[in-house]
């Protein structure tokens, strides 16, 4: 049941992205930013927490989940370090994700070469 | 001597002839319906090179070499070469052709480059400024994606109206002693911009330029679409071709079934998932320098209009929200004198 909920939540988020690609003229990079910002805003409004409780990784792994982690990191940073936390909290909370993206991106670039699409 | 006919058209009284031509394409083009007409299909689209840009230069160099060989001449006898491509500063041409030691004039006409370079080469040969002139162009899917959209590494999705950049090159050698086909009339197009901003829908942006040039040619020469075996545009794709018919219909010109588009000929659109058709300098170049010239030499086509269209945008102008200026250049080509 937990898997099904995660699948449904993640799936719906991806469907929204696909519809935006197919039906609007938004560039992929804009959709990416839109998802992260939406995650931040929904978390700030307290709307994303219930989605995470329902969908688990289905809500935290997609890009909106990155926004969710950023927003929560800022809240935690402010609690622990006061005003400075506004600037440090977000990146601290997402540091693992960012470092992993850079590391694995580099690793994959070393191993593979991009091929023609045909 | 050449003479001007009407406002925009040039008639060549002593029409330059195609002495040799060649086309080299990549794997996807080799899987398409025109496969048997190309001189060479390279299944490895790197062409044995380290970067996509080098691959494109290599393809252009190989294509010119092949055209020279088919014309049975050496590079030293070529007086001038007109070439261009899609990459910044036209590096595919300048890097690909640097070893030939032939006087070089680089051109940028985006996907209209085959027609633009052929027009320049024709004028040089007809005017006696060159005994032998070459027109060359190329495009490569992978280098064009990096230039205009995103590097392949990004792995993004493509919208339905987008066209697929052809991996291919074409080269034509013109002189007075060739076996043909012959360049009879030329119309250099005007820049037309109706304010279309969607760089994924270039067919629609280029159709008004195509309509404008065709209209100029018909009114200058008094000819009509029925006079030709084929009116070959490149590369309007499906969206742009439909729009061209509509625009000309409004002016009382009916293209009927005479018009076909290089962007629709080169791939099987159902099976090859290329959305609105093909584009790129190499598209009209490789179609013209394979099936079309082949059919003309074999007598299956006698009298055609070849009009290549170009979207004169840059990645920067797209990012700054500018519309897409377009141009279309036309040549009237006949199989015999």
Sheet with most strands: strand arrangement of chain B: 1-2-10-15-14-11-12
Radius of gyration of chain B (Å): 18 Å
The largest sheet of chain A, given as strand count, sense and whether it forms a barrel, is:
none
Order of helices and strands of chain B: EEEHEHEHEHEHEEEHEHEHHEHEHE
Strand tally of chain B, please?
A: 15
Give average pLDDT of chain B, whole number: 94
Terminal CA distance of chain A reads 40 Å
Which class of secondary structure composition applies to the elements of chain A? mainly alpha
The helix/strand class of chain B is alpha/beta
CATH top level class name of the largest domain in chain B: Alpha Beta
Largest sheet of chain B: 7 strands, mixed
Globally, the shape of chain A reads globular
Question: Would you give an account of this structure?
Answer:
The complex is a heterodimer of chains A (118) and B (337). Chain A has 118 residues and is mainly α. Chain A has one domain (2-111). Chain A is built from six helices and no strands. In chain A, helix 2 (28-44) crosses helix 5 and helix 5 crosses helix 6 (85-111). Chain B has 337 residues and is α/β, with parallel strands linked by helices. Chain B has two domains: 3-175, Stage V sporulation protein AD (Peroxisomal Thiolase, Chain A, domain 1, 3-Layer(aba) Sandwich), CATH 3.40.47; 182-334, Stage V sporulation protein AD (Peroxisomal Thiolase, Chain A, domain 1, 3-Layer(aba) Sandwich). In chain B, 34% of the residues lie in helices and 23% in strands. Chain B has eleven helices and 15 strands. Chain B has helices spanning 27-30, 52-70, 91-96, 113-126, 141-148, 202-221, 237-250, 262-265, 269-272, 281-297, 315-319; strands spanning 3-5, 9-11, 17-25, 40-41, 80-84, 104-106, 132-139, 164-165, 168-175, 182-187, 230-234, 259-261, 278-279, 303-311, 326-334. Chain B has a seven-stranded mixed β-sheet, with helices on both faces. Chain B has a six-stranded mixed β-sheet with strand order 4-3-9-7-5-6, sandwiched between helices. The interface between A and B is medium-sized, with 10 and 19 residues.
